[in-house]
Design goal:
By secondary structure, this protein is α/β, with parallel strands linked by helices. The chain contains 14 helices and 10 strands.
Length: about 290
């Protein structure tokens, strides 16, 4: 029997107009989600998603609830239950909502605050993130040890994102390029998944603790533990430590495979995770939402 995992994308996958076609085709099923978002957040998230402008949608405090909402709607339209779920950073919140751990409203409020707290943790311009290509994890670890940069995302064997103070990250980029790697500075507004995010993590912790968590309908891989979790108290505690945790996406995908998963479906905007999974393990069948619904 085929085991399937749903995987949920993180920030950066958003784009103006995402979900509009689904709204027009499935209005009766989709419209209530946008109404619930408006009531939960106190502003019209649908307007931001459908009309932008792009500069506003890219802001962390809007991008995060926008992606979560898009993912939840697509999960609803798929109409099936996976054996497991995993999310890339923000995507863990989408996975938890879809697994019924907490409500859509609680999820939207949490990630809206998460986005704002992450942006406010470090003054603009002081932090940075760089994608390092063509070097393995151990090499990048060595570079980080020399510079004070930190590994934020282990996205694929040949794509590792580093984060931290801008001077340290740019020095690490120089060293990577000297080793014949390639460094690409990312267009992000803060050094996500680094120790500089500790103030955001501490501010979000009481907000997470105020939300009631219940047992998931299917196991969700935790960003922090890298394991499928089902205990609501443990899921809650792990989530309070997620903002500064390294996103070990390559390891999560291989863990899903070890659990017997042979098919992964990306539930959310775009196909970033679908492409990454094909670079991690070609034996896994990786499909985007658009491919599944075609």
């Amino acid at each position: 029997m085929v085991k399937t995992a749903f995987v949920f994308p993180g920030q950066g996958s958003q784009y103006v107009g995402m979900g509009r076609e689904l709204f027009e085709r499935h209005r009766a099923r989709v419209e209530p989600f946008y109404r619930r978002a408006r009531e939960a957040l106190g502003f019209d998230l649908q307007e931001v998603i459908f009309s932008g402008p792009e500069e506003k949608l890219k802001l962390t405090e809007f991008a995060q609830p926008a992606i979560l909402l898009d993912s939840v709607i697509k999960f609803e339209l798929l109409g099936r239950t996976p054996d497991y779920a995993a999310g890339h950073s923000l995507g863990e919140y989408s996975a938890l909502v879809c697994a019924g751990v907490f409500s859509v409203e609680d999820g939207l409020r949490l990630v809206h605050l998460r986005g704002r707290f992450m942006q406010e943790a470090v003054p603009v311009g002081q932090g940075s993130m760089v994608a390092i290509l063509k070097l393995d994890y151990e090499r990048v670890q060595e570079i980080c040890a020399q510079t004070g940069a930190e590994i934020a995302n282990y996205n694929a064997p040949d794509q590792i994102v580093i984060s931290g103070r801008r001077d340290a990250v740019l020095k690490a980029k120089e060293l990577a390029e000297a080793m014949r790697g390639k460094g690409i500075e990312l267009a992000v507004s803060a050094p996500f998944h680094s120790s500089l995010m500790k103030p955001a993590e501490e501010r979000l912790k009481p907000e997470i603790e105020r939300v009631r968590f219940v047992a998931p309908r299917f196991p969700v891989l935790s960003t922090v533990s890298g394991e499928p979790e089902t205990d609501p108290q443990r899921l809650q505690e792990l989530l309070t430590r997620q903002i500064t945790a390294q996103v070990r996406w390559t390891e999560y995908v291989l863990r899903l495979k070890s659990l017997g998963v042979t098919k992964c479906i990306e539930v959310g905007p775009g196909d970033v995770l679908t492409k990454l999974m094909k670079r991690i393990d070609r034996e896994l069948e990786a499909l985007s939402f658009a491919q599944v619904m075609a």
